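Two proteins, back to back. First:
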Amino acid sequence: MPALEEPLKKVLGPATAKVMAEHMDLHTVGDLLHHYPRRYAERGELTRLAELPLDEHVTVVAQVASARVLKFNGGRGQRLEVTITDGSGQLQLVFFGRGIHKPHKDLQPGTRAMFAGKASVFNRKMQLAHPAYQLLRADSSEEAADAVDSWAGALIPIYPATAKLESWKIAKAVDLVLPSAREAEDPLPESLREGRGLVPLTEALLKIHRPHTKADIADARARLKWDEAFVLQVALARRRFADTQLTAVARAPKPEGLLTAFDAKLPFTLTEGQRKVSREIFDDLATEHPMHRLLQGEVGSGKTMVALRAMLTVVDAGGQAAMLAPTEVLAQQHHRSVTEMMGELAEAGMLGGAEHSTKVVLLTGSMGAAARRQALLDLTTGEAGIVIGTHALIEDKVRFHDLGLVVVDEQHRFGVEQRDALRSKGEKPPHLLVMTATPIPRTVAMTVFGDLETSVLDQLPAGRSPIASHVVPAADKPHFLARAWERVREEVEGGHQAYVVCPRIGDDEDEKAGKKGDKGEKSAEDEAERRPPLAVLDVADELAHGPLRGLKVEVLHGRMQPADKDAVMRRFAAGETDVLVATTVIEVGVNVPNATAMVIMDADRFGVSQLHQLRGRVGRGSAPGLCLLVTEMPEASPARARLGAVAATLDGFELSRIDLEQRREGDVLGQAQSGVRSSLRMLAVIEDEEIIAEAREEATKVVTADPELTRLPGLRTALEALLDEEREQYLDKG
């Protein structure tokens, strides 16, 4: 067995290997060698405490400023409070109960140490409760790391760690496997590596884990970024190459068909952006190679209209079109809006159906047996030109008469395999149009959607209203929250409606919420200090009996029966409900032009792109929208800065950049897309745009010259490892 494939339990022992497998997804020597330090502390240098992320496991190097033991519970309990400093800011450490004796002895004022724990806020101050620590002792001449023998150099690696395994323990484990780095297979072609002045892989691994100088780190990073970018781009280039070998049925637009009739009855003019993107799609559909196009556009930019016109073109050309939505709520919403937009054109075979018409059917997992049978029959016979559904469309028993186009909405909820499963339902591969309302910077499009051509809709249709966004600091200024409910009441009195969004549903989730994270092994004090996220059922009840008394308040969440969800949405869309209290089930696709206000509770618990998506549910009519982001986070926290950024701009592309920069992940689109998140450890998608673009070019050259990579065994091995991760991605059923 190659050294890098050796299981960690053989090298580190079963206990450490088990923690690494369960909590860090590290299983082999190679996995651990590619678990790179997050940053490096210089011996003698202190960590900037003001920049610590909240609710994350952090490792800091700091100096003890003071320590004191306090009694509570009438003297029966005691806790140790230690204040550490970086020279400018301070952070409090808290130890409880019998566990205070050793830290009280070790952590004397002036002592330097590494501390690891979860950063939280208590009494509006940052703290680490029960942190682990490793002393960095000093002798008379210089600081010596006698506790960690391998750290003889000036740079201390700080590893991404967990509560179960601190950074310094990971460093010791790395020491044990580092000799195996000499056997690492190099995935880069030698000519590429030498042409770009990159160090060999073995050298890069040694330098990233045990650098002697900052130049060592720079060399290693430059090399390892290229590995990640290049291997990923080769995977995408091979997918593109395979697609060029496929043939599809050309579906050229037909004059005087369904599309012409549909365009003639539109009550508005298409934007220039919609016309331009439609032309790109029509050109692709008219060729004998399958279209692979990503359509990205801001919330409300009219993507559904563009997709519908593409589907009508395919129906005109004798084919069928399928639209795949991530949730039942969204599938039903699309079905309603498509049939409403088409009117009599969607009534083929019915009294009053137009001369040019087709049938539009809905197919979801929760449909009754009779309705499902009829829908499946309409697809098999070709009676239905358009089908809209959830993942139920992928099932084996679904057969099409002649599937010509697949439209996937909100691509990041589906893995590549699910996309391919639906594509395989045609005699020849159908054309593919992928839509997303999550704005994607160019580099992410190249990285995550590198097998697709990209079209962007960046204009909003005429008549869309601006959305004002404000942060409501509930902890600092409780009267602001009271005013938020007054504003909701004012909107309703003005004839409009409002959403209230909460992170959780409620009832039996309380147990799960407490246990999530550190597997329920927090101290009682820890639990008491951590407020659970607000829940739909609780908030709806409080509002209906409190500040929104007298208004018609309903709830919507993912655990409701599909028929109940649909009934709630219908009542809200019809204006029978004043306020809808919901989870993020309303995040995409829900279209109620009369809804003008949204209050997002615990807004800091949502990501930047998700907040932007949610906000896009209001301001969809002629009246201006209002979005209020409620938070209890302190003013100086990174979470508040994030909310401030969302409130300050409606530009989704700008927000997606902020989102990526803050998360430091290679994927703004969530975990289920292509295994990309798990494969990008070093590459920063925003900063490394140039590397990604160059790697894409090099990868295309390599794959064109040698599609099977027969002359590059190291690259094949790296590719197999990446694709193993990709195959593990599953469909998120919403």
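And the second protein:
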Amino acid sequence: MSRLKPTTKLFRRSNLLLASLMALLATPAISLATDYTVTTADDTLANHTPGTNVCGTPCSLRAAVMASNVNPGADNILLGNVTPALFIIGSDENSSMTGDLDITDNVSILGQAPTRNIINASMGDRVFHILGGAQAKFEHVSIRGGAIEDNTGAGIYVVGASRIELTDVELANNTVSLVNEDPSFEISGGGLAVGAEATAIIESSDINNNVAPIGGGINNLGRTDIRTTAIHDNTASGTGDINVDRQEVFSGNGGGANNLGGYLSIGNSNILDNHAANNGGGLFQINQGLNVGNMIVTNTTISSNTAFSNGAGIANIGPLTLSHVTVGENTITGEGNGAGIFNSGTSSLGVVNSTISSNSGARSGGGIFNSRDMTLNNVTIYNNSATPSTCIVGTDVDCSENNVIGGNQLTVFKTATNTNPSVVISNSILANGPSSNIAEAPCAGSTDYKNNIESLGNSIENDDTCGLINANDKPGTVVNIDPDLAVDPDYPNTTAVHALLDGSPAIDTASNSSCPTVDQRFLLRDPLCDMGSYEANANQQQTSDLVDLKVTITDNPDPIAPNTIQPLNYVVMVTNLYVDDSANSVTVAIDLPDSYAFSQLSFTSTSATPTCSSPNGNNVITCSVSSIPGLGRVEFFISGTPSVEGIITARVDVFSQTTDSFPQNNTNITEDTVVSAAAGESTNFNGGSGGGGGMIHPLALLFAAFILFRRRAKS
């Protein structure tokens, strides 16, 4: 073996040293998080050199943000007792030199004053712009005074794959103005706007007195989770009829919050005194035609909101679940329907353990106006009022068929263009009260509307108009029965439920097999449970861990041609509807159609990372999740191709080792029509609206197509 000459060894060693040096230089700089302390309220850059990570002395909030943006790592900006004021004029740039504060790197902005540090803007721009995939945390601050025209998010705008967390934050007095009548539905989000790929987590905060044409308080296209937060006194200001050619359906919707095709969960919160110039005084949702939207509301009061048109409390055109929710004293101020809840379009509404009461101003459906699929389980719908229009349909251009129906508590409406609504009722109360219109029956609807109501029994009405004909219903053949409900003069500000008085026929007459374990107040129900949301003799709070897992599955497109390049996509979502406890050792079984050729699976999760098997011989995918926290969720996205024409069904079941208070919603199915393009309606293929009813805005279809494309690109 020959030996290397010393010079050769040195040469090789030098090469190794050079390679190591080059690798070191190529490695991104590692920086520990830096604390920047803001020492002046002035909006100045006099002591900061742009492009450096040194704030300067004194250090302004603007300079601290700019320094943090170029400093790798997650920095802290400490406000001390300073209340920064932003006044450097100039918009449409993303470097924080003028106008809003643009955050492009991970940072926490932390208030430290005895009360929230106020960050007040007066420069004709939004306050914060979160972009570039940044993760920004705000704590103990009040963000005020953002003002923009024909743009998005006056308080905070989160775009791209960015993420924000708000804890003990106020978003107040921020305004988006519509000036040039731009057709974009992105002119929205007075307090907060969350982009389609972005995430927002809001805890113990206050969103108030914000204004925007769409989504006065919040406009959500992405993923937003809200806990223990007050959303109040916000306004969706758009008129909804700016330009007839636009066929605008978004403007003026969502006074408190607008969910425009995103995922929105709200728990332990209050949505109060918001206003919409069009629909959805408290909340508005539209699922964009492709079921990409979903809204979960639990243990929340939606009260004293107003809307000029439909849904003073909630206007819903998307998948919506209400659990332990009070919708009370909401008012329609113009011509509209569903003072409590308006449910239409391509929606699916499920209500459990909730109270809908004392809503008014509707032409039809004082409590609920429904023209789509809806389930009511242990729900109290009471004391709402409707006053139908006296005009004659067909003789007055402003006279709509749905405005003349009436129905104090529930209206079921169907037209030739709608698929027939399906209303399933169990263990519920539908009854007029002292504030109801005495000239109106509790329930009303289109011709033969009772054919669309399925009673599973053990429900009560105080006349015979609600279609409760199950043998276990009350009154059955008895009319004018009184459910004997207490009326609290301070409702819904105190109890938020209506107690069952002694001797009420609703006591001990519900079905135990379909009752939740607890009532609306989270008190344990008796062995013989009561109708409605209130358990008369309940006095023990649930002490052990208790969850409510809800599963949904949707398909797209529908219909679809067999054996094509275009995939049939399933979206499975599992949500823990209860806030306080985690669901442990969760199993999700997804039973795909036999004729479905599975291609790929992806998922997103706010809980533990799932582990999934490949489809077995029965085409079942089994996924395990160690824990799903309160209001946490897991979403599964499945792609594949159907091979046989006909109606195919996919089913999903979810199980947990933690006690589930309402296992009835642990199973769900979806059906899809597989038919050749030549045999089907061509307009329904390639991502169309399918056979479902309800008007879909052209912009909604474009947006939904974008979301679907993005999801496929990520798969």
